[in-house]
Design brief:
This protein has 198 residues and is of the alpha+beta class. It contains four helices and 13 strands. It has one domain: Jelly Rolls, CATH 2.60.120.10. The strands form three sheets. The chain has a six-stranded antiparallel beta sheet, with no helix packed on it. Strands 9-8-11-6-13 form a five-stranded antiparallel beta sheet, with no helix packed on it. Strand 1 and strand 2 form a beta hairpin. The two termini are 19 Å apart.
Length: 198
C-alpha cells in the first residue's frame, strides 16, 4: 500500500500470480494494513454494488465520529474511483484524486473517516465491493453533488453520468460549508488516533 496525495487515503497494488488456471492475489492483510495506515480497519459491514456504464455514485461521506472508513475494490469491469478531501482545515481541502480500479489491475483504495468518496462506472456490470468500518446509518450520512463545479472533478469525457435521485439533489460543497455539515480535519485526525492497531 502507498499513500495517495490526500492524507488518510491509500492505494493497494497487489502482486498478481497468474498461471494456466487463472490468477491469484491478496487484497487485504490485517497486519500490513495496520502498519502502513496506522489504524485498525474495523469491519462492520460489507457491500457490493453492480452498476451500468455511466452510473455515478457519490460523493458520499459520514459524520465524524464515527465516520465510515471504506476499503474499495472493483471485482468485475472497471470504475474511476475518486477520493475527495472535504475536511475543513485540511492542507488538501477541496482536492481530489482518482484511480482506475478494475478486474485486471486488482487495485484497492482505502479512505479513512471523514473523506468523501464516489466512483463512475466505466463498463456495464461494474461490480464494486466495499469493506466498511461502520454500518449504514441514514441520519449521519451525507452527499455532495458529484458535478459541483467547486470540486471540478475530471470525470471522463464521452460518458453521460447517471445519478440516483438522491445524488442528483445533493447539495454543493458551499452549501454544506455554510450549514456546518462537513467534518473538520482536526476531529478526523483525533478520531483516527484512537484507532491505532493493537
Amino acid at each position: 500500500m502507498r499513500p495517495l496525495s490526500i492524507e488518510g487515503a491509500w492505494l493497494h497494488e497487489p502482486t498478481i500470480f497468474p498461471d494456466e488456471r487463472g490468477d491469484f492475489h491478496e487484497w487485504f492483510r490485517r497486519q500490513e494494513f495496520g502498519e502502513i495506515t496506522g489504524q485498525e480497519l474495523r469491519l462492520a459491514q460489507a457491500n457490493l454494488s453492480v452498476s451500468r456504464r455511466g452510473a455515478l455514485r457519490g460523493i458520499h461521506f459520514a459524520d465524524v465520529p464515527p465516520g465510515q472508513a471504506k476499503y474499495i475494490k472493483c471485482v468485475r469491469g472497471a470504475v474511476l474511483d475518486v477520493v475527495v478531501d472535504i475536511r475543513t482545515g485540511s492542507p488538501t481541502y477541496r482536492q481530489w484524486e482518482s484511480k482506475l480500479l478494475d478486474d485486471r489491475n486488482h487495485r484497492a483504495v482505502f479512505l479513512s473517516e471523514g473523506l468523501g468518496h464516489g466512483f463512475l462506472a466505466l463498463t456495464d456490470d461494474a461490480t464494486v465491493v466495499y469493506l466498511c468500518s461502520e454500518g449504514y446509518a441514514p441520519g449521519r450520512e451525507h452527499g455532495i453533488h458529484p458535478l459541483d463545479p467547486a470540486l471540478a472533478i475530471d470525470w471522463p469525457a464521452g460518458i453521460d453520468p447517471l445519478l440516483s435521485p438522491k445524488d442528483s439533489r445533493a447539495p454543493t460543497l458551499a452549501q454544506l460549508e455554510e450549514a456546518g455539515t462537513l467534518p473538520s480535519y482536526e476531529q478526523c485526525t483525533a478520531f483516527r488516533r484512537g484507532l491505532r492497531p493493537v
